[in-house]
């Protein structure tokens, strides 16, 4: 029988295994705990059971959010947290600018009706931030920004 489980560490390193966990595992790349279920709702991140022998493996993209409960997975939450830290640590922006910028982050990583406005706002606020903030923020979020957000922010 062909069955597959997507296993992802808290930092987002993923691999497709042909077994479900009987005991906990740790990431071979970074040492963090490996998850096979959403920590919020306890549904599998991805479990495919073809019910018969198959050749090859299912295609997948590591999800950012749980399709069962909508909460960000730990690797997504970590990026949001790191981007928030980068903005909070800025020496030039006002507290109001910081909170406005932080509030746009979730709309920059998933295309939704607010993404364009969020990217414009972030670009504007970042242009007034220190260079270190710009660098750190860009590095932290570059792997998860939507193409629309990247383009509007001039990051591609
Ligand atoms: Zn890892
Ligand atoms: Zn969930």
Supply the number of helical segments.
Answer: 5
> pLDDT under 50 segments (min length 5)?
none
Strand content: 5-15%
Mean pLDDT: 93
Major sheet: 4 strands, antiparallel
Number of strands: 4
List the domain count as a whole number.
Answer: 2
3D structure, described in words:
The chain has helices at residues 74-88, 95-109, 115-127, 131-141, 147-152; strands spanning 3-9, 14-17, 34-35, 47-49. With 156 residues, it is α+β, with helices and mostly antiparallel strands. It has two domains: 1-67; 74-152, no CATH class. Strands 1, 2, 3 and 4 form a four-stranded antiparallel β-sheet that branches. A hairpin with a 4-residue loop joins strand 1 (3-9) and strand 2. The longest helix is centred in the middle third of the chain and has 15 residues, at 74-88. The N and C termini lie far apart (44 Å). The model has no long low-confidence stretch (mean pLDDT 93). Bound molecules: zinc ion (2 copies). One zinc ion binds at residues 38, 40-41, 43, 66, 68-69, 71.
Essential attributes:
156 residues; alpha+beta; 2 domains; 4-stranded antiparallel sheet; 5 helices; 10% strand; elongated; binds zinc ion
Brief synopsis:
The chain is of the alpha+beta class.
How are the elements arranged and paired?
Blueprint: E1 3-9, E2 14-17, E3 34-35, E4 47-49, H1 74-88, H2 95-109, H3 115-127, H4 131-141, H5 147-152
Antiparallel strand pairs: 1-2, 1-3, 1-4
This protein binds zinc ion (2 copies).
The site of one zinc ion has 7 residues, from loops.
């Amino acid at each position: 029988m062909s069955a597959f489980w997507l296993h992802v560490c808290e930092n987002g390193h993923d691999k497709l295994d042909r077994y479900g966990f009987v005991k906990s595992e740790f990431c071979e790349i970074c040492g963090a705990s490996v998850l096979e279920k959403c920590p919020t709702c306890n549904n599998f991140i991805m479990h495919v059971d073809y019910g018969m022998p198959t050749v090859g493996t299912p295609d997948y993209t590591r999800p950012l959010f749980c399709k069962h409960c909508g909460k960000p997975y730990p690797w997504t939450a970590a990026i949001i947290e790191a981007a928030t830290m980068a903005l909070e640590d800025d020496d030039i922006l006002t507290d109001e600018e910081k909170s406005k910028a932080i509030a746009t982050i979730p709309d920059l990583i998933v295309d939704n009706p607010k993404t364009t406005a969020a990217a414009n706002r972030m670009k504007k606020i970042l242009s007034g931030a220190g260079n270190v903030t710009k660098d750190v923020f860009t590095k932290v979020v570059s792997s998860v920004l939507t193409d629309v957000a990247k383009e509007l922010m001039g990051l591609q």
